[in-house]
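Example 311, ligand flavin mononucleotide.
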Amino acid sequence: MEEKTDTSVDFAGLKLANPVFVVSGTSGYADELADFTDLNRLGGFITKSITLKPRKGNPPERIVETDAGMLNAIGLANIGLDKFIEEKLPIIEKLKVPVFVNVAGETISEYVTVVERLATERAIAGFELNISCPNVTKGGISFGTDPAQAAEITSAVKKAAAQKPLMVKLSPAVTDISVIARAAVEAGADALSLINTFTAMAIDIETAKPVLANKTGGLSGPAIKSIAVYLVNKVYNEVAKERRIPILGIGGIRTASDAVEFIIAGASAVGIGTANFIEPGCAVKIIEGIKKYCARKEIKNIKELTGSLKA
Ligand SMILES: Cc1cc2nc3c(=O)[nH]c(=O)nc-3n(C[C@H](O)[C@H](O)[C@H](O)COP(=O)(O)O)c2cc1C
């Protein structure tokens, strides 16, 4: 079948060739997936969270498979800003797709320092603010569960990001996700990404102890997909649509049909996470599948699909 669909997406001032990202923490910093897939075919790439200082993260066990997904309690282990600049930026410079650097921290000034240092780097297209990590004791999710704190950190980081777009990554672990989404957008967020993982637990019944050393971890994968689709649709209807803020839909996407569900729900782009561990090349397959779907449905421009949910 002849492909006629324009799959390019305008995303927070950036032009993406297609709407498929690989997301933070599942694809390394830059080239770790390069042996398995052609990263330049993606719509965009999001790095593992970077903090000002290197972090060892939590002790093992840090990962456990569940029935329809996994729990992780990595605890934001990362090489820190200096090493990132020294070792990873030169690789990122060679990538042809827009790269968002995901930033985390314990204090607002830590986030601001990281973003300020990177704001002038040409290789970086934008920033993703991680205010939704459930696996750290300080910072992380606490900024993402209180609207006043979400607004304060978003506006401080937005200033530090200068001309580069800022995407704010939301946690599902709140009473009303739209309240946090609205706070972030009113404080200057150019895009929203959702969702991060749900706090969850697995128990070894022989020892009666939690499987993860951290006791709890973040649940991701197919188990969370339907909740993520619902939350994307809710934020689209209640916050993003009228303000024309693009949403990056994330949560359990494994196939092109999963991705299309998120786009119909209101996402302008989608992010692939846990599925990369099962099949590292799946993002490219998903792009091809979305194109086939659009051709079959005679959709000329993928933008028509965003928020096209019928009653
Ligand atoms: C092993 C692992 C590590 C992760 N690390 C990060 C991280 O450093 N920063 C972040 O914002 N999200 C992180 N996430 C969350 C993912 O980016 C994504 O939001 C979540 O897993 C839901 O998508 P999925 O179901 O497609 O995996 C991590 C997820 C996993 C499974």
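Summary: The helical segments are 80-94, 108-118, 147-161, 177-186, 225-243, 256-265, 275-278, 282-296.
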